[in-house]
Structures are given as C-alpha cells and as structure tokens.
Amino acid sequence: MIVVDRLRKRYGSVQAVDDLSFEVRQGKVTALLGPNGAGKTTSLRILLGLSRPDAGSATFDGQAYSRLAQPIRQVGALIEQSTFHPGRTARTHLGALARASGLSARRAEEVLDLVDLHDAGERRVGGYSTGMRQRLGLACALLGDPATLVLDEPQNGLDPQGTRWLRAFLRRLADEGRTVLVSSHLLSEMEQLADDVVIVDNGRVVHSSSLTQLRLDAGGGPVRRLEDVFLELTGHGAGHDVVSQAAS
Amino acid sequence: MTTATATGERRSLSPAQGTGRAVVAELIKLRGTPSVWLLAALALIAVLLGLVLTIVLGQIRTVDDVRSLLSFSGTGGFMVILLGLVVAAGEYRYRTIVPTALGEPGRARSFWGQILALGLVGLLLGLVASASATVITLAALSVATDPPPVAALDVLAAVVGGTVYTTIAAMLGGAIGALARNQVAGAIAMFVYLSMVDPLVGMAFPNYGQFGPIALGIALGGASPDPSGGPGALLLAPVVAGAVWFGYAAVLSLAAFASTLRRELP
User: Measured between CB atoms, which of B4, B21, B110 is closest to A102?
Assistant: First the structure.
C-alpha cells in the first residue's frame, strides 16, 4: 500500500505540492490525474526518493523508498522517458540495473521479451522511437518483478497496440494483487483501466475515491464520462462545485 | 505475455557489498558507452604519438632521457580526466542518474561506486599506456647507437607511477564531472585551468609548479627534473607527488559527494 501523507514541496515561489494526501490500495490500479503543473510528477518524484519533501511523508507499506532493502524488487518505477544514454544499448541499460540490484542477466532478457524489445536489445537507444524508449522504461520498471508499480505517463508514445497491451498488462498485475499507481493525461484510457482515481490540482487533492464512486458523487450516473467530471473538479468545466458539494 | 519472476537473493547488503555491486554496474555502463572507448583511445594515442615524436625528433643519450621517455604514460592523463568528467557529468546530461538512484537509493554507494569504477578504468588505461611506453622506449634503445643503460627499477617506477597517475586522474575527472554536472562547463573549466590558470600561477609562484598536475604526472613517472625549465623544472619525489595527486582527487571527490547528497536530482 502506498500512503502519501500531508506532502508539501515548494520550488522557489511555486508551491508544487501543498498538503497532499492520498492512499493507493493493493490489488488496484489507481490513476493519479491532474492538469499540467498540478503536482503529479513532483509527488511521484518525492514518493520515489528523487526529491525531498519540505514536509509530510510518502511510503510503501510504511517505509520510505530510500529505506527499502531491495527497492527494484519492491517498487518498479517509470518516472520519465529520457533517462537513457543514447549511446548505450537496451541490454547495457538493463544489465547494469540488474547487476546493481543483484538480479541475474537472464532477468534482463526476460523483461526485454516481456516488452517486445528482444530483437532491438543490441541497438543503441539513441535510435529508438519514443514508443520503444517507453517500452524500455517499462522493462526497467518490471525488472525486479515488483509488488508495486509507479508509472508516470506510461502510455506516452505507445501505439494503439502497445496501449492496449499495457492496459491488459497493468490490469493483470493488479489482479495478481500488486499495487499500481499510474499518472496520466489520457482520461479515456484511465477510464478503461483505473479502479481508483486521485485527482490533484494546484498541488492539492481535489478528489480521491473509486472511479465508480466518483461518477456517483458527480451525478449523472455510472456512465458519466471521466473527462467531464475531471474538468468540473479542476475548475475547467461547467458545474465546478457539483462534486465537491456532493462529496461533502 | 507472462510476468516472469525475478531471481536472486533477498537480503540486506553490507556497505562493501552494495558498493561492489555499484562498481560492477558502473563498469557495465562504461563498457557499453562509445564515448568512453573514444576518449580511452585518444588518451592512448596521445601517449604513443607524443612518445614516438619525441624519439624521432630527439636523441636518447642519457639515463634522464630514458626516464623521460618511460614517464610518457602520464601524458594521456588529461584525456583520462576528461573521460571521468564526461562520464560523471553525463549522468546528469542524459538523466541516467535517475535509474541509478532508483536502483540504489543510497547515494553514497552509487557515487563511490562510480568513482571506483572510473579508477579501475584509469588503472587499466595506465597499465596499457605504461606498458606501451616501456615497449616503445626499449625498442628505440635497441636500435640506438651507444644507448644509455636502462635500470629495471626505472622501468618499474615508470610503470607504477604512470599507472597510479592515470588511475587517480580518472577518479579526479569523475569528481569534477559530479561537481560540474555539465559536460561542456566542466571541460571548459578544465581547459581554462590547464591552459591559463596553472601556467600563470606557476609563473607567479615558481615553487607552485611542482604541485601542478603536469609536474605531478612527470614526477610520478619517475622522470628527472628538466634543467631547461617548464613544468618539469621542479619535481617532487614520486611518493610525495602521488600523495599530492591523490589529495587533490580526495578533496574534490569529497566535495562532489557532499554536493551529491545536498542537491536534488534533475
């Protein structure tokens, strides 16, 4: 279980995250949604120990990421697309990460197969398409066969086939009892995938519940589009206060 | 598609084990990075070219001439510093520091792992450069008329000193790169220091010259002081020169480590 508790982070004059709290349940896919600059990536970076919070905490089963004994085996993360040296091959990237985590080289081959990059494993990443880099990022996240996945915009650059594969794959991981937190702009995609939603705006949580509950709170019944509800909640659509009033 | 299961032991690691893993992971990355091979090749070419030109254009008359040739392995040191700098700063340029940090959240292990891995690369390069310099020098002596004698101790001192110099140079470069976090800025700073600051300070304070990187390389290689002047005019004893060179690397590495702990990742 992921618990984010009263997280605060300021960059200069910008309050990127402001008293942010939410939980991510085991065995569920939770979508972290919000407009650009809402604080999603900052929250995920803090969660993964890449940034230090000014206040609050973010933990995996009660432990900060930096305290995890076997981080890659416990939490798989895809935080941004371009974290690969263009001159290195996918095998080099995965091999180094596997070695640093005490995993076998065979495991690197397994995840290359898993994301359908086996044949491109010896090619330099600089020649990869955006989608291939995204798949490599997913391979890194899956390397340790972790119980928890934290993915920032994992669908970016994937073609429709890849998007469908990812959706089914994350669904199955959650059904296996794993915890999956996905940040995304693709509301229609999240509508098909997520069990729970956390919507943030201006660094604060504006709604956190199951997707079904969100639709009920928003009114309009269980077929209401997530996009409409999202725009209302983040102040970009008509009836901005409807859900807030319903939720309270 | 199926979800494969990761294998391997699940236990807490000692700092030495953790750093050892980080070193091996860094070596895998270095082996798979074309720019590392390019800079390593350039370092060796610098040594061999300089040595051959010196032999062709000069004469080998005295024992000091032989020592000077044997100590040539250090001339690739600056390219090795650049190699370390490019590798360490490249972690920030390409943001490869992010997966490194996700795999090993303890910044100490990954930082010192990289510095040690660079040291191993420097060690290997130093051995190759020293061995090459020795072979070429001995070959030149074998065809020279009335060659001066070669002491086995001089050869050993040159190989050991040259290797130590190059090893520390790679670690020093890594520290500079981690401090600068920018390949271009770091390379420019190094170039300005070597081409302007070091010579100017050497002119203003003649005794400083023996503490400069060039003089330390010459001293570590076991060369005799150059009576015609220049950076080799005043030389420290090889052991002292090694200690000073290591001191520079240690201070810069500690500063880079403190900076790595304090600053946030990009």
Answer: B21
Considering only alpha carbons, which residue of chain A is nearest residue B266?
Answer: A50
CA distances from A19 to A6, A53, A60, B205 (A): 4, 11, 18, 58
Q: Which of A42, A81, A82, A88 to mutate to test the interface with B (most CBs of B within 10 A)?
A: A88
Contact between A147 and A74 under an 8 Å Cβ cutoff? The reply is yes
Question: Which CATH number is A2-247's, of 2.60.40.10, 3.40.640.10, 3.90.1530.10, 3.40.50.300?
Answer: 3.40.50.300
- Which amino acid belongs to residue B135? V
Contacts of A144 in chain B (CB under 8 A): 6
Burial category of B104 from C-beta neighbours within 10 Å (exposed 0-12, middle 13-18, buried 19 and up): buried
* Mean pLDDT of all residues belonging to chain A: 88
Residue B12 gets which letter from DSSP? -
**Residues from chain B contacting residue A51 (CB–CB below 8 Å):** 264-265
Burial degree of B256 (CB within 10 A; 0-12, 13-18, 19+): buried
Cβ(A141)–Cβ(A77) below 8 Å: yes
Q: What is the mean pLDDT of residues A137-160?
A: 92
Residue B6 within any structural domain of the chain: no
A24, two tokens: 């991510």
- pLDDT of residue B7 exceeding 60, the answer is no
Residues in chain B within 8 Å Cβ distance of A80: 95, 98
Three-state DSSP state, A88: coil
DSSP string, A32-44: EE--TTSSHHHHH
Note whether residue B182 is domain-resident: yes
Supply the ipTM of this predicted assembly.
0.85
Nearest to A97 among B8, B35, B99 (CB): B99
Cβ–Cβ contact A13 with B under 8 A:
no
Q: What is the pTM of this model?
A: 0.87
Q: How many structural domains compose chain B? A: 1
Say if CB A184 and CB A156 are below 8 A apart: no
| Domain ranges for chain A | 2-247
> What element of type H or E holds A121?
none
DSSP letter for each residue of B211-232: GSHHHHHHHHTTPPP-TT-STT
Domain containing B179: what range?
16-260
Read off the tokens for B115: 């510095």
